[in-house]
Design a protein that fits this description.
The chain has three helices and no strands. By secondary structure, the protein is mainly alpha-helical. It comes from Streptomyces resistomycificus.
Length: about 90
């Protein structure tokens, strides 16, 4: 992976993390850095899942891939928030 791929993964991860955080109702007790980390991980895993189902490269915007990534980010944010609440 080249530097432009890393930078784009970070930018996409920020957007995916924030959108995933917006999907989860209520206030989350995690910081922005955790949100970004969850977003980056969700973007990478979501791309792999979309590739496995052959919906990663479509004509125009990849709506299905984005929905998978946002859903994974929402699950990650909710799981991390729940683990922080138990402490």
């Amino acid at each position: 992976m080249e530097i432009d791929g890393i930078i784009s993964a970070i930018v996409i991860g920020i957007v995916i993390g924030v959108l995933g955080r917006l999907v989860v109702p209520g206030r989350q007790r995690i910081g922005i850095l955790w949100t970004i980390a969850v977003g980056i991980i969700a973007a990478l895993i979501g791309s792999a899942i979309a590739g496995a189902f052959d919906v990663a490269d479509t004509e125009g915007p990849d709506w299905i891939e984005w929905l998978i990534q946002i859903g994974l980010a929402a699950l990650g944010v909710a799981a991390l928030d729940r683990s922080k609440a138990r402490r």
